[in-house]
């Protein structure tokens, strides 16, 4: 019975980790409700006692699902993949799974954490150069590791690695990284953005998207 | 036949991500060879063209296993878990798996990346305060999320979360964080360090451990 209740995503339109979860829900065809948490307003709504009771990590996303609350986007995505029907977000073969996790972790552990709000706030005035430096570093690595990403030629099998890529490119553009330096990343990102699951989950189309950023 | 060849771990005695993989091999009873990569000497042996050919991410650990090369420690650990017999490093139940991945990711994405060598080098003189700040931040979160960790009372089931915890506490001590502020973390760490797999994999007992740090 718990699984018949719609999951609730506590997220923020522009949080790349929230976007990852939205893509996974969309690819799996899972309906969910959103309760936006504004990371900026009121000094950060994720810092309230109310939110802390839900997610002690005081970050987004947090997902209420099947009677429990999960956080950390890759843990959430793999839980969705393991418990919901629909296309696999991780391949069945262990080596291929490892490749997908490698690319996902490169982004989720190697690039994104350095642009987390609480890191950027500590860096202060140099946040733009800081972010560019580490995104460029990560994209250089990623560019040599892209063999397993989605291509329009194969079976259109979209993986967790693709789910991590697109929000990271969005972040890169926010920090004015020239993504054109990485033609494979740029091409993949453009191809993925053609897919409905990436469009409906886009930061420009969420309930909490401000009017001036709305697509 | 490929699976009968011993895996080769390219790591560094003090790298917490290398230590994670060593613990996983030890828990699973997998024999492996080590080829040390000195992250400091010669400006960093991970930056050589030879190593880059092995692991374009130019980080440790990298593991040659079953005819392929894997990197990113959590991807490696899950690959080992999925392909080797022995105790499960992730529980079978999807919710419990998600909990283990949440805690693992909190450490592997939320704490450790901010002490990565290439981040610390960019921070420069303030690296000690910087590291303490983010380890404390992470440990405060972790301290409220420890329900799934190993306890001596249950079935002694050690998970990937425990594998992540111990090397992170070791890092915390290197950066002079007062771990005593987090009694549950301290207690768990001490209990885990009593277990052989955590002892044989310890940074003080590796082929590349310098004599003055050797246990």
TrEMBL record, chains A, B:
- E.C. no: 2.5.1.18, 5.2.1.2
Q: Which cofactor does it need?
A: glutathione
The protein's location, in the record's own words, is: Cytoplasm
List UniProt keywords, sorted A-Z: Cytoplasm, Isomerase, Phenylalanine catabolism, Transferase, Tyrosine catabolism
Biological process GO terms, please? Answer: glutathione metabolic process; L-phenylalanine catabolic process; L-tyrosine catabolic process
Domain named GST N-terminal is located at 5-88
Entries under CDD domains matching the protein: GST_C_Zeta, GST_N_Zeta
Could you tell me which residue ranges the GST C-terminal domain spans? 93-211
Q: Which InterPro entries match?
A: Glutathione-S-Trfase_C-like, Glutathione-S-Trfase_C_sf, Glutathione_S-Trfase, Glutathione_S-Trfase_N, GST_Zeta, GST_Zeta_C, GST_Zeta_N, Thioredoxin-like_sf
Q: Which chain regions cross the lipid bilayer? A: none
Write down any Gene Ontology CC term.
mitochondrion
Which PROSITE patterns does this one have?
GST_CTER, GST_NTER
A molecular function annotated in GO for this UniProt entry is:
maleylacetoacetate isomerase activity
Q: Which Pfam families match?
A: GST_N_2
Give the metabolic or biological pathway.
Amino-acid degradation; L-phenylalanine degradation; acetoacetate and fumarate from L-phenylalanine: step 5/6
List the catalysed reactions: RX + glutathione = an S-substituted glutathione + a halide anion + H(+); 4-maleylacetoacetate = 4-fumarylacetoacetate
Q: Which family is it part of?
A: Belongs to the GST superfamily. Zeta family.
Q: Which NCBIfam families match?
A: maiA
PANTHER family the UniProt entry points to: MALEYLACETOACETATE ISOMERASE
Q: What is this protein called?
A: Maleylacetoacetate isomerase
Query: Which species is this UniProt entry from?
Result: Astatotilapia calliptera (Eastern happy)
